[in-house]
Amino acid sequence: MKEWAKGFYQSGAWRKCRKDYLKSKFGLCERCGKAALIVHHKKYLTPKNINDPNITLNHDNLEALCKECHDKEHEWNKKEKEVLNEGLVFDEDGNIVRA
């Protein structure tokens, strides 16, 4: 867990939101139907949006995932951040920057 996100993920608001969201999805992964252990943010959290409840606590931005599907999601995102062209990469916010 990133240092800037620890306070949010340890908050009562997140714990309640996470519990309620998993319950609303019957504890099942929304991609494969296995047991969901993780509530994933579709729009990834950043230091810029970590205090925006419309992103962090909004059920429309959440997805219940099993560990395997969550790992696949982040592996896919990692590939997006690889070098696009010599000297260019995606930054944490999806902007193209010089490597």
Give an overview of the whole structure.
This protein has one domain (3-98): His-Me finger endonuclease fold (3-Layer(aba) Sandwich). The protein has helices spanning 6-9, 12-24, 53-56, 67-80; strands spanning 38-41, 62-65, 88-90, 96-98. It has four helices and four strands; from the N terminus they run ααβαβαββ. Helices cover 35% and strands 14% of the residues. Strand 3 (88-90) and strand 4 form a beta hairpin. The model has no long low-confidence stretch (mean pLDDT 86). The chain has 99 residues and is an alpha+beta fold. One of its GO terms (cellular component) is cytosol. Residues 29-74 form the HNH domain. Pfam families: HNH (PF01844).
